[in-house]
Amino acid sequence: MQEQELQNCLYQMEQGDREAFHNFYTAYKDYIYRTVLLLVNRSEDTADVVSEVYMALFRSLHNYDSGKPFQKWLNGLIVAQTSNWNRKLWRRFRLNLRTSAYQEKEQMTHTSADTPVIRQESERELLNLVQQLPSKLRSVIIMRYYQEYSFQEVADVLDIPLGTAKSRHHQAIAKLRKDPDKLKQLTRYYTERGESL
C-alpha cells in the first residue's frame, strides 16, 4: 500500500468506512500477525493479541500523526498490546512454571522457494533462542534484526532512551552468548547474512 493510499485509508477507517478497514486488513494482516507471533510469550495467544491490536488501532487511530511513519507507530502499538498481554498472562500464571510456554507450533518466518534449507533452519533455531529472552530484550532484538530498525528507531518505537535500547540489545546478545550451542547458532546465522555478531 502506497503512502498516500495508506493515509486515505486511515482517514476513511477513522470515519468508520468498512471497505477501508478491509483494504487495510488485507495489506497488513500478515505483518501484524508475524510481529505479534514473534513477541508473544505463547504462540497460542497470537490470535487474541492480534485482536487486541486491532481494537487498540481503532481506539487510538485519532492519535496517529500522519507526519510520522505509520509502520513505526503501528509497531509501537503492537509492542504495547503484546506487553500488556504478556503482563496479564504472567499475573495469571505466576505460580505455574510454564515449561511449554516457548514451544513453536507454527513456522514463524515467511520463506520462499529459493531460500536455502540450511538458512531456514538456522533462522528457525535462532528464532527459538530469541523467543526464550525476556519480553523487553526480545522486543529490541526482533525490531533490530528481523525488522532491521536502527537503534534510534527501536528507541522511538518502544519510547525508551537510545542508551536503554542499546543496553537491552547488549544484554540480549550476552544472554544468547552464554550457551556455547547458542553462540555457534548465532555465529552461523550472522555469517550467512554477511554480518558479524
From TrEMBL:
InterPro entries in the cross-refs: RNA_pol_sigma-70-like, RNA_pol_sigma-70_dom, RNA_pol_sigma70_r2, RNA_pol_sigma70_r4, RNA_pol_sigma_r2, RNA_pol_sigma_r3/r4-like, WH-like_DNA-bd_sf
Top-level taxonomic group: Bacteria
Region forming the signal peptide: none
Keyword DNA-binding: yes
Single GO term (MF): sigma factor activity
GO biological process terms held by the UniProt record: DNA-templated transcription initiation
Domain RNA polymerase sigma-70 region: 24-91, 131-178
Keyword annotations of the record: DNA-binding, Sigma factor, Transcription, Transcription regulation
Keyword Metal-binding: no
CDD domains per the UniProt record, alphabetical: Sigma70_r4 (cd06171)
PANTHER family according to UniProt: RNA POLYMERASE ECF-TYPE SIGMA FACTO (PTHR43133), RNA POLYMERASE SIGMA FACTOR SIGV (PTHR43133:SF60)
Family recorded in the similarity comment: Belongs to the sigma-70 factor family. ECF subfamily.
Protein name: RNA polymerase subunit sigma
